[in-house]
Write a structure and sequence with these properties.
The chain has a 7-stranded parallel β-sheet. The longest helix has 27 residues. Helices cover 50% and strands 14% of the residues. The protein folds into 2 domains: 240 residues, 3-Deoxy-D-manno-octulosonic-acid transferase, N-terminal domain (Rossmann fold); 193 residues, Rossmann fold. α4 crosses α10, α4 crosses α19 and α11 packs across α17.
Length: 445
């Protein structure tokens, strides 16, 4: 079967069955999930936001670029790009879209962003309405959040699409039949793909993206985490009373599967080292997730407070554990810790290990790291460590808290992994400028 026929069949299947199914599932889940409910209601307001924005920029012929990020973590990847583009092209209009409410609702407006909205639902009607209204000069997607109708519709309208910081883990379902056949048709319509690493480039080749692949420019997350590490020194993110504490441990983006092993290890370690302090940052800081953590520490008579309580009242005397009940500050907290655990690594896959590494932490994580070349590199260099149980976490806490000389070498080694890989931002900015310039040239012809 030739490629055009395959693409047509997948297009019909996606729009006749998959999109209606997603729509039904979302609306069934709406009464039971606050996150889904916020996403649906937020998308209903997207069109008014677009119309208000277009009225403000009416008559402005400068290029408009759409940047899409799935959530807040992916948005952090594009922050340095947005800042550089706005500096070089102050008249350009930069629109940021989010898929997840956890990204949109915790987005903090900056001078680099002209409009922040939810990405419309990926139906043909919504996508075409979106593109017709904004008529972007390019669509830039970071990391992985590819929506088929958006790509197909942009391709038909001759709007360039670019995937930056492109990642495709070896265990991704996209690489397996029959899903790989579907995504072969989608990736083949992306104009430009800049993989984050050579490993990712090889994975994209497996799904037929050869003609879209360009040079490996690296990952802008390295630039952004270094920026955040510096930013942390100037903001009030951390209790002054704790800055002289001999050992501080931060556990970031934790899931219940992490906490089942992590919290007992922390409690055992505290019994041996009562001068230590701990910060726990759940991946989903909902009351349902946080309350059991507070009870677990309280049960063992360890003084624990919420981060919001510290912000409101200051740090109460004898507090040993802070549980963070807000999103967006984890990268800043790593700047004050000596050792960090990165969550997700017993469940979906490890989260961002570069943030603690950039802030010179000894870094621990669970065994699921195939999704993170950076975690694998930390392990390869013996400056990051896989832990598989409560006992192994406790062992590492004891080992590195008692040997300051070795810990310092490991902290420097972890940071060097980030520093050596920085610099992708300027190269990606140049690539975006080239694709926009080429689009303007063809539009004038």
């Amino acid at each position: 079967m030739n490629e055009p026929v395959q693409e047509l069949l997948w297009f019909v299947l996606y729009n006749s069955f998959i999109i209606p199914l997603i729509w039904v599932v979302f609306h069934i889940a709406e009464p039971f999930s606050q996150k889904v409910r916020h996403g649906i209601r937020g998308r209903a307001e997207t069109w008014k936001s677009i119309q208000d924005f277009l009225q403000k920029v009416k008559g402005n012929a400068a290029p408009l670029i759409v940047f899409h990020s799935a959530s807040l973590g992916e948005y952090e990847q594009i922050r340095p790009i947005l800042a550089d583009l706005k500096k070089d092209h102050p008249d350009w209009k930069l629109v940021v879209t989010f898929f997840s409410p956890s990204g949109f609702e915790h987005f903090k407006r900056t001078e680099s962003v002209d409009l922040a909205i939810y990405l419309p639902f990926d139906s043909l009607r919504s996508v075409n309405r979106f593109l017709k209204a904004l008529h972007p000069g390019a669509i830039v997607i970071t990391k992985h959040d590819i929506w088929p109708n958006l790509i197909w519709a942009a391709n038909r309208r001759k709007i360039p699409t670019m995937l930056i910081n492109g990642t495709l883990p070896a265990d991704s379902a996209i690489l397996r039949f029959p899903v790989s056949g579907f995504y072969r048709q989608v990736y083949s319509r992306i104009s430009t793909i800049h993989p984050a690493s050579e490993t990712d480039r090889q994975q994209f080749l497996k799904v037929g993206a050869a003609h879209s692949l360009r040079e490996v420019l690296g990952d802008t997350r390295f630039d952004q985490v270094l920026n955040r590490a510096e930013e942390s020194k100037t903001g009030k993110f951390f209790p002054e009373e704790w800055k002289s504490v001999p050992f501080i441990f931060v556990a970031g983006s934790t899931w219940p599967s992490d906490e089942a092993r992590l919290i007992p290890a922390v409690i055992d370690f505290y019994r041996e080292n009562s001068g230590s302090r701990f910060i726990i940052v759940p991946h989903e800081p909902t009351p349902e997730h946080i309350e059991p953590l507070l009870k677990q520490f309280a049960k063992d008579r360890i003084s624990v407070k919420l981060y919001s309580e510290w912000q409101k009242n200051g740090l109460l005397e004898n507090v040993r554990v802070i549980v963070v009940d807000q999103i967006g500050i984890l990268a800043n907290l790593y700047a004050f810790s000596d050792m960090a655990y990165v969550g997700g690594s017993f469940d979906p896959g490890v989260h961002n290990v570069m943030e603690p590494a950039a802030s010179s932490n000894v870094v621990l994580f669970g065994p699921k790291i195939l999704n993170s070349p950076e975690a694998q590199e930390l392990v390869r260099r013996s400056v990051g460590f896989v832990v598989r149980s409560q006992e192994e976490i406790l062992e590492k806490l004891r080992e590195f808290s008692s040997d300051s000389n070795r810990s310092k070498l490991l902290q420097e080694g972890a940071r060097s992994v980030v520093v050596e890989n920085a610099g992708a931002t300027r190269q990606i900015v140049r690539s975006i400028e080239q694709i926009v310039s080429k689009k303007q040239f063809h539009d004038r012809r």
